[in-house]
Amino acid sequence: MMEENIAAIATPSGKGGVAIIRVSGKSALSLAAKMFTPTGKKDVGSFEPYRMYPGEIDGGSFSDYGLCVYFKAPNSYTGEDVVEFHCHGGENIARGILRQTFRLGAKAAGRGEFTKRAFLNGKLSLSSAEGVADMINGESEAEVKAGYLLYSEKLTNRVREIQATLKNLLAGIDVSVDYPEEDVEEQHVEELVFELQKLIVEVNVLTSGYSVGKKIKSGVTVAICGKPNTGKSSLLNRLLGYDKAIVSNVAGTTRDAVEGVMEIHGRKFNLYDTAGVRESGDAIENIGIERAEQIIRSADVAVFVADSVRGTDDEDARVLAMLEGKPLIKIFNKVDLTRDETESDADVYTSAVTGAGIEKLKELLYEKSFGALSEDAAFLIEARHYDALTRAKESLARAIKACNNQPLDLIGIDVKEAWDALGEITGETATEAIIQEIFEKFCVGK
Ligand code: GDP
User: Fold this and answer.
1) Which CATH class, in words, describes the domain spanning 218-370?
2) Residue 3: φ, ψ to 5°
3) pTM for the structure as a whole
4) What digits encode the pLDDT tens for the residues 8-43?
5) Centre of ligand 1 from the C-alpha of residue 304, in Å
6) In the chain, what is the greatest distance between 2 CA atoms, to the nearest angstrom?
């Protein structure tokens, strides 16, 4: 347990129903005794853990009537003694109470310091702590869900199983290195290759989840493409439900790519309305076209918009050609002005004016983005975890290769490297710099 008490306001700033001031450290309870007067004859020192006690909280120049709760080490968030004061949710009330904890010797907690202490005290793994940040910072329901899976050690548990097997293999290698006997060693290497191959499969199952995971975390990038005036900006606005892109009758007015973010079935989609992709002598518009091409390259899904009144021509064909190889949704827009829905190979007929076809468009976007992708490992949303798993896989592959012609102790080095790479996920081998970076993502008070 850390000696020093740290304190912070755990609730967001602003007015609210309640605010919570949290203190963690060895003498959190005796600090509480100095600034909380329980109602009745109770004395803070005799507080039962995990029970709320009403009373007066000292805010320095004022008092508030609120609640105090004591979480006894090691069964608390940080693993240390923790005390929380629940006061009325005014910023100045919470700040006054916080300042009072400082007067009583508590230090201002840094970003994520409570969670960092929890990690250092072995209450949660590093990936679990990252899950907490993912939940809090989650920009979609799916990210919150994935964050919760991380937080509840879904990834760490699977990684630890693999690590345990690696530890066993390493122990076996050590024994063989110490007592080398030719024929025993040969058999050992064969078994080793078999085990290592199994582990690669297990790591692969995890990394394959990243194709879904990274889209959950960063959002699916959708490029809306098509000739000027086909209704791209209007459709984007329809999808987002507000006027963000500039809609105009003059061809080429959407000079820049406009970004809008929306959710479909709880997952995040980043929409880009590309500038009209066409030949133009206009310098500014050329920059727009360049950006459009860039967006198309990085897009997960392309939406091609054609004007159902004017039909398609060579220019549409040129735009379509640029989208080759991308998951594609073809739209015929402005169907409110036409009745014919049969004369094209469109995936969906829409009207940005009436909203016709928009729901179908959303379903198609979801399907094209996630379709048959497995949800099995949808908690692999952090690039850092993916990277560590990939390096573990590389080390395992090297170990298997080394089994062909290298002595056991050299094979052991690769196996150990795989273990170390996985340790970056759980935290065992994470450097101070990595740990620092992770907790920087937190807010103060968590
Ligand atoms: P962009 O250049 O492709 O982004 O096209 P805009 O969204 O700026 O739309 C061009 C023009 O077509 C505007 O006058 C819009 O109001 C009109 N428009 C766009 N979508 C529709 C639609 O579905 N139906 C009708 N009737 N007009 C539309």
Assistant:
1) alpha beta
2) -65, -50
3) 0.83
4) 999 999 999 999 999 999 999 999 999 999 998 789
5) 14
6) 87
